[in-house]
């Protein structure tokens, strides 16, 4: 997952928001009550950075932001009063790094099998190896080191074990395998086409570059772009400021969504990401993430006598809507549930597609399946979307999901309990950060699962009370 950019020709003024607490993580130096405008403590390592980038850009990038340090690494802070609606930074496309920078000979062998992140990671490796000869050295030297990063591809077996009950565990394994596959192609291309720059490509270096790109590049018309300076901005899930791209003016820009005083940390939204996505790709979590979700995998058992008929029917009718598919590469029996806001049916409900799947699952004779198929044809074509007329069958269908969800609740609770039991062991700072991430992930998923169980329980108990 990359950060997604919004392409704009004309953009509307974004809604004013209340000041959010994340914007106050910064500690000021030398601030006294008589000073109404606190001074921003600049990141001394970045003093020459903006003038350098402005030279490349051929113009001003910001009038109101400076680079400072937050508890989450580098960040941008208001150096002057900023009003909601102000444009706070503009980075022209010519000051961005894209896969177009790959040596032409390397582009061809990498075309199909290496994704945009892998291609840009290869560019970053080349620039890094060029050292002081790289045009981008002032930028590259200010990127975080791999030891400071917590993207899940860097997690050890023990660390990954903490989240074994979550679907993101499997995704991490898949992502690592994909990176290794892409690395073998990139390494081959390096050996053939740039042996003098990269003599002995190392998987470790590729993984580091891949994690940097995955956590700080935006999808753009070039496929993907690293946008220096804009990528020093940290994420706030409540912010409505995003990085936007203006193809006519050939630049990326950010508009403030709220007022800021000098010294405030200025945050943007990377997207509506769950903690699973944030930890997999960005290496952090939010303590309470409203976008948390749980991936549910349900199978038609192989020993079900109607297995083939059910699979055929499900395939023909596509039980899932596209909205059910998340970051996870889903198979035909994968569903995503979000927090069900109210057990009484208000707010976001329980996914219809999963309920439909379980109705199909509990059919025991071909006639029932044929009836579902006929019913779909008479309505909007979607299978099993209406409750069974026979309420005990409807109950049975929902009990299937409920027992699956209850099992996941048990697994999540056991993982959390195990983690809490090991809380007082002496651990490294790195492990402590990752354990907190694991806790945020699992508690968020547990919240989602419990809301789903509550909804299902309510549905099951009221099924027979309706007239
Ligand atoms: C686009 S970069 C932002 C700049 C970064 N802090 C730096 O030092 O260069 C994204 C990275 O910043 C950190 N980050 C951003 N927002 C965060 C947040 N709300 N909580 C924790 N870490 C965050 C994570 O390490 C993430 O991978």
From TrEMBL:
GO MF, any single term: methyltransferase activity
Top-level taxon: Eukaryota
Single GO BP term: methylation
Every SET domain range: 57-271
Alphabetical UniProt keywords: Methyltransferase, S-adenosyl-L-methionine, Transferase
Species of origin: Cardamine amara subsp. amara
Keyword S-adenosyl-L-methionine: yes
Pfam families linked: Rubis-subs-bind, SET
Transferase in keyword set: yes
CDD domains for this protein: SET_RBCMT
Name recorded for this polypeptide: Ribulose-1,5 bisphosphate carboxylase/oxygenase large subunit N-methyltransferase
Signal sequence segment: none
